[in-house]
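Example record for the data management plan.
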Amino acid sequence: MQQDILINWSPQETRIAIVEHGAVQELHVERTLERGLVGNVYLGKVARVLPGMQSAFIDIGLERAAFLHVADVWHPPAEGESLSASRASQPVIPIEKQVFEGQSLMVQVIKDPIGTKGARLSTQISIAGRLLVFLPQDDHIGVSQKIPPTQRDELRSRLQTLAGTQGGGFILRTNGEDATDAELSDDIGYLRKAWARIKDASVRLPAQSLLHQDLNLLQRVLRDLVGESTQTIRVDSREQYEALKAFGSEFMPMAAEKLQHYKGERPIFDLYSIDEEIAKALARRVDLKSGGYLIVDQTEALTTVDVNTGGFVGARNFDDTIFKTNLEAAQAIARQLRLRNLGGIIIVDFIDMAREDHRDAVLAEFKKQLARDRVKTMAGGFSQLGLLEMTRKRTRESLAHMLCEPCPTCEGKGIVKTPRSVTYDIFREILREARQFNPREFRVVASPKVIELFLDEESQHLAGLSEFIGKPVSLQSEAAMGQEQYDIVLL
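Corresponding structural encoding:
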């Protein structure tokens, strides 16, 4: 299926949209200030060695010194020994015998700085490609543990042949399971070029220099997102177009040929109403063309998708109505998973179908749509309760987690108490306070809707409460308060 990639760049944010036949299929967002350091390679300078903690502080040019533990100091394995076996068999050499103050050391960030803690480092360098991870200091050839054991030996043998005898080891990533020899060879070439650049920079640059930065989103477009079906890659920034063209010409010539600089007067995302699609991708309800709709709820443990017929009455009988709604929903759900980047366990509640052939057809259509996903998915059949369980690999934060935060009013629940419920909470709280304290007056400060209810429908109950406790109760409306918020002030 033919696709176009649109890139909207600004100094603070990069946004990527993948469009197929006029419909947005994927969205990727990266913000400059929120970009992590994991994967970056630095030429650090040992600032301090702490034998008691078996650690060293390394100055890599950041605000805080980074942290290197003895367990993260790399040692080459013995000949014929695997990396894991080497780590298990070798005695731990004290860190004070391995590094010294003032020493220049090539290190890689394995954990971002958190709070007052600096970044965590390792001296074992690994460079991630599209299909492979390159280990320049090791000759180990490995395969992802997530690939079935029956395929690992064959894949390892293929990779060994393609890697040749130029040195360095490779680990095949999960998404390289079905890669061709040509694709793997391209990735090997790219990774070797990247390592050559790092080695050259380590000789030329002074300590505390950045030698290698993991690719930004713009560059990962060429590495990860461009395929044979990609027609064009349009960038709305002349500066970024030139930089991407230079990067692509060196590392990914086939992808670089598809680059175009967008010069239109309208913002590039307006071409396909992508900002509207982003707003829809953050909504709980997704309307289908037929009149049916989906309800998508993302929780900590899993995501649920509920399919409803809504106002769809187009088919001749009820069974056909349900079947057609579910077929359309199967296509829409697969697209929403990509668009929202939902991962982990996903439960889909299709409308119950009486006929088995209808269930089989919906399941087949759903799996067909999932097969288009570049992220690994697994879907089972319908359970005894009519639910469909599936998983989708988590690759990054979902769109909602990246662009949104929990509502400060409802604290992420998605619901708030009604004004009447809040007034009854206030009644109970005043009674509780009246038993413990003896103020001159109680003043209720609450949202306008709650105060309005006190003055109208609940005015008689409020007067009765005031008489019962023997104290006046005054009211104060506060527009800045949420519906559930209130204060009872003792005067």
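Summary line stored alongside the record: The chain has a mean pLDDT of 87.
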